[in-house]
Amino acid sequence: MKNGFSKSRRGYTLIELAVAIACGLMAASLLMALVNQQFTFLRIYAAQNFLIREAPLISTHMNRLIGQAERFRLHNTTADALSGANPVMTDAPVLVLNFQQPDGTTQAAMLAFQNLGSGNALYYYLVPASGVLPAPEWAITREASNVSFSVVSGVLGVTLTGPNNEQITYSGVMQQ
Amino acid sequence: MESAKHAPMIFRRTRSRKAGSRFARGSALIEVTMALAILTVLGLLLFKSSINALYPRQWTLEQTLSDAYLTYEKAYAQRIPFSDLTAANSPWPVQPNSSVANVEIGRIPGGTPIYANVIRTRIPDTNNLAADGGTGTTVTNPSAMEVWKVQSILSYEIGDRSYVKSRTVVRSQ
Q1: What is the residue extent of each domain of chain A?
Q2: How far apart are CA A126 and CA A132, in angstroms?
Q3: Cα distance from B136 to chain A (closest Cα, Å)?
């Protein structure tokens, strides 16, 4: 009886334990690799969102705005844009658009990439006759890390830089 | 009667538990091997499905970039002064001549630039006068109207496939 008990409770050998631990580690590392693979996939998937989803939306809005404008000017600051001072041709964060109204008057609007305290965003302003800039009408995008306007060969270009250094340039001309 | 029934059941259970534990000890290696095999297959399947999901997005991404670049070609063709368009050093040479340039159409996430070839050419309208590349005469075209189809063709590659897309603008004076 004593012998039988000791036989049934004999311990594992070092090799058995080593094999069991190695197998367990292999299974665990494989599982970790699997999880890591899925996280990498999600990261790549999310990184593509700016160019695939956000940029075409921004382009649609910009095309509608710029396509209806009668003229435009580029500036480095909203203050310059309001006063009409220091217009520039490249790397401008502010674009002033002038729209002809049905009654013959002109309505000015402004697109400005700036930080109003809640992070960088591309804002759309309607400029009143008083010349005092009100709160923005709406934010076209908050996902871009940079937006710059430039004029090359008479063509207005908008370069959008995404959060992962992706870059896309849309171009357009005013109504003719 | 009841105790008589219980005794063999306990015996059977005890015996079967012993047999089970012996079986479990013996099959541990097989179980782990199976788990590893299943995990490997699962990993491969998930990897394949990830690739399947990402590949069309990569395609869409390049379409977005190439469409965006073509907005410049279209705008430039609309905007360029007519005299520059028809000059000897025009960016759009008269067909069958063409100009080819390798341009950066944008950058993908990570900042890697994507390049494509842009081929520019302009095609005269058949009613243009002979001096303007057409077969028209002063009878068919008394005002010496010049009409040109200004064409930009963008060619790029995704993987082992080549893609071509174009924009054509009609200019006249």
Answers
A1: 2-47, 49-172
A2: 10
A3: 28
In this complex, the residue of A47, A51, A172 whose CB is nearest that of residue B71 is: A172
Spatial distance between the Cα atoms of A83 and A85, rounded to a whole number of angstroms: 5
**Contact predicate A110/A97, CB 8 Å:** yes
Selecting from B33, B71, B110 the residue whose C-beta is nearest the C-beta of A164 gives B110
Q: Which of B124, B135, B138 is nearest to B170 (CA)?
A: B124
Tokens of residue A52, six digits: 């695939």
pLDDT in tens, B14-23: 444 444 455 5
| 8 A C-beta contact, residue B167 and residue B73 | yes
Nearest to A23 among B32, B40, B78 (CB): B32
CA distance B98 to B72: 18
Q: Edge-to-edge strands of the sheet including B147-158?
A: A146-152, A155-161, A167-172, B99-108, B112-124, B147-158, B161-172
- Among B120, B85, B74, B122, which Cα is nearest to B99's? B120
Which tens digits make up the pLDDT trace of B97-148? 999 999 999 999 999 999 999 999 999 999 999 988 889 999 999 999 999 9
* Backbone phi, psi, residue B69, to 5°: -65, -40
- Yes or no, beta carbons of A27 and B57 under 8 Å apart: no
For chain B, the structural domain boundaries read: 2-172
ipTM: 0.81
Q: Is B80 in the A-facing interface, judged by CB distances under 8 Å?
A: yes
CB contact under 8 A, B39 and A170: no
Q: What is the DSSP letter of B159?
A: T
For residues B20 and B28, which has the higher predicted lDDT (pLDDT)?
Answer: B28
Could you give the CA distance from residue A156 to residue B72 in angstroms, rounded to a whole number? 9
Contact between A56 and B71 using a beta-carbon 8 Å cutoff? no
Sequence-separated (6 or more) residues with CB below 8 Å from residue A129: none
Helices (H), chain A: 2-8, 14-47, 49, 55-68, 78-83
